[in-house]
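Hey,
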Amino acid sequence: MGKYFCGVEGGASFSKVVLVNEDGKVLCWEDGPSTNHLLVGLEECQRRIYVMVDKLKEKAGIGKDTKLDGMGLALSGCEQEESNRQFEKSLLKNYPLLSTSCAVVSDTVGSILTVNPNGGVCLIAGTGSNLLVLNPDGTTARCGGWGHLLGDEASGFWISQKAVKTIFDTEDNFNPSSYDISVVKRIVLDHFQVEDKFGLLEHCYVNFSKTFFAGLCAKLAKVAIEDEDPLCCFLFNEAGKALGKHLIAVLPQIHRSLLTEKGGLPILCVGSVFKSWKLLQEGFHSALDGKLQEFTLLQLTESSALGAAYLGAKATGYDLPLKFKDHYRIRYHFKN
């Protein structure tokens, strides 16, 4: 019998699990609920993983009592090394027939390993924002990821909040915008379904929803692209600068081998804000200021469960031959 490896992409809303053989061939997939242990609890998280992997074994016809040769878990909420090692030990102890080996990392690391086994950069700009560097030797560097009160620069929430704040600052004559605010004000009031800026206070304090607030960003992007509203364009230019600053912050900690890869530094872009890359591009380059000679922005086309499976195999000393180039598409390439 050959080797079997499993990978889990565990998010706050859903999970995806894959089973591959020693040749890197995908045998089957399974979808499941959230496996963020901070949201559902450690015991329930591990039970859900066990159930999903059991279903994979059944689909593949390998028997529930057959231990996998290795499994990798790329889970949201798994950011601390010590906690991850404890997670691995307790999972194998509680479910001894699951696998002979287990490796736990954050979902961000799993995303990087899905496109490049040597590592790279994962830059997130969705509802929130974050950046992680994974070097070939396994060392990491981070910037951001502190939430909307302490960070989230360039995120959908951040762009939306700056749009709302610009309206207040201009009409208060506190810090007036040099751009006309009328178009942005109309979009903001329409999004929150209020008549004036006093109505916005409920959405900022009483019934605040970060996700709903961030939803304003897509509407601002639409007007920036279609109508080239100056204030909307300015907001996304500022977001581009903030994304560039994330990268500049970790540049000294990125190994040279990643900088000299074919196509330059591989940067995996995750999050809906990157759908508006044309609006971000000028600000991004402005922040880099020529400090990065070549880079390629990548977008995932496959689940990060595949990167997790690669990690699970690597933890046992086995180099799983996945077709990494089939897992992404190139969004943008720059060479000075």
